[in-house]
Amino acid sequence: MKVHDLRPDEGSKKKRKRVGRGIAAGQGKTAGRGTKGQNARSGGGKGVYFEGGQLPLARRLPYKRGFTNIRKIYYNPVNIDQLAEFDFDDDVVITPDVLAAIGLIKKATDPVVILGDGEATQALTIKAHRFSATAKEKIEAAGGSIEILPFSK
User: Is this prediction's pTM over 0.85?
Assistant: First the structure.
């Protein structure tokens, strides 16, 4: 078999219908659009938003577009393995200020949650706004301690 022998499968290629090219072509005059009316015109037809004059769904259900809970607290996550990358002194207390200084969170004023991904290698004293159960276990198993900071928005 050579390149010039290659052919597409029978029926896989279909010729494009050329409408509006004269009566003999079979799709002349109205070009398959019928006679007159909105859909016979160029740009005719209704948009996907139109529901026959009925108030569209997007306007009937405004609550479906989303909701922002103004009381939700967005915590900045910090994993134990991220803390393990830094070699802290034994007497240092890890607070949101320290985490912001080393670049693990952006602002020290934002709430912080300590998560349990990774292994605790040092006995650290960590102050944060929230701790996951696994993080608490791992920190205390390594000889460290935790303190939950209060947070109000």
Answer: no
Query: For residue 113, what are the contacts with CB-CB under 8 A and spacing of at least 6?
Result: 75, 76, 77, 78, 128, 129, 130, 131, 132
Distance CA 82, CA 115 (A): 10
Q: Which two tokens stand for residue 60?
A: 């009937």
Full set of structural domains in the chain with CATH: 76-148 (3.100.10.10)
- Residues 6 or more apart whose CB falls under 8 angstroms from that of 114 comprise 78, 79, 80, 83, 126, 128, 130, 131, 132, 135, 139, 146
| 79-117 tens-digit pLDDT | 999 998 988 887 889 999 999 999 999 999 999 999 999
